[in-house]
């Protein structure tokens, strides 16, 4: 599988910054992810109000409901109750956009400041959720202080 070296994010060119592999229970490959940032930007500032894209290619079939449920669980683990409540409607909006995936399908989350976070499946936009606070929380699932998988986060942030 390959990822583009550069992608357009609302008129801003982003460059491939890091690649990472998520393993489930150590031996099963779940998906590979690519992080895109503006050329020369500091990956440690990825959760700030800056353009970014996370593209994920899946190795297994997963239902839309399971994707949404996993996202909710990870957000609840990472956010305090007040922040969760402030984002709950927008999280539900994103969850409604998810579709079932098959092996080889890709989801991309692309954040553009002032516009919001777009979800696309296999290159087709499904919708956009507004707010820098939403983008910080949602990208934090993979790149925050308590990421889904620390090894994946290190790979993405270090040019893995």
Q: Describe it for me?
A:
The structure is a single chain. The protein has a single domain, classed as Chalcone isomerase (3-Layer(bba) Sandwich). It has 4 helices and 7 strands, in the order ββββααβββαα. Strands 1-2-3-4-5-6-7 form a 7-stranded antiparallel β-sheet. The radius of gyration is 14 Å and the shape is globular.
What is the structural class? alpha+beta
Counting structural domains, the number is 1
* Order of SSEs: EEEEHHEEEHH
Number of strands: 7
Helix share, percent = 25-40%
Low-confidence stretches: none
Mean pLDDT: 92
CATH class: Alpha Beta
* Tally of helical segments: 4
Largest sheet: 7 strands, antiparallel
Query: What is the CATH topology?
Result: Chalcone isomerase
Strands of the biggest beta sheet: in what spatial order? 1-2-3-4-5-6-7
Task: Just name the CATH architecture.
Answer: 3-Layer(bba) Sandwich
Straight-line distance between termini = 15 Å
Whole-number radius of gyration? 14 Å
How does the SSE layout of this entry go?
Blueprint: E1 6-9, E2 12-24, E3 28-37, E4 52-58, H1 64-78, H2 81-97, E5 106-112, E6 116-121, E7 124-129, H3 132-143, H4 150-157
Antiparallel strand pairs: 1-2, 2-3, 3-4, 4-5, 5-6, 6-7
Helix pairs in contact: 1-2, 1-3
Brief sketch in words of this structure:
The chain has 160 residues and is of the alpha+beta class.
Question: What are the salient characteristics of this protein?
Answer:
single chain, 160 residues, alpha+beta, Chalcone isomerase, seven-stranded antiparallel sheet, 4 helices, 7 strands
């Amino acid at each position: 599988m390959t990822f583009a070296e550069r992608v357009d994010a609302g008129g801003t060119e982003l460059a491939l910054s890091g690649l990472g592999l998520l393993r489930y229970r150590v031996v099963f490959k779940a998906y590979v992810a690519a992080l895109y940032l503006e050329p020369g930007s500091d990956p440690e500032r990825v959760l700030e109000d800056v353009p970014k894209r996370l593209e994920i290619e899946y190795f297994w079939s997963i239902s839309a409901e399971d994707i949404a449920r996993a996202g909710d669980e990870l957000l609840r683990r990472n956010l305090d109750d007040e922040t969760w409540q402030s984002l709950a409607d927008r999280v539900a909006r994103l969850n409604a956009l998810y579709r079932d995936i098959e092996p080889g399908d890709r989801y991309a989350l692309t954040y553009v400041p002032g516009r919001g976070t777009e979800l696309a499946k296999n290159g087709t936009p499904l919708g956009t959720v507004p707010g820098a606070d939403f983008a910080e929380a949602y990208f934090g699932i993979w790149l925050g202080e308590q990421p889904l998988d620390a090894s994946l986060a290190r790979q993405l942030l270090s040019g893995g």
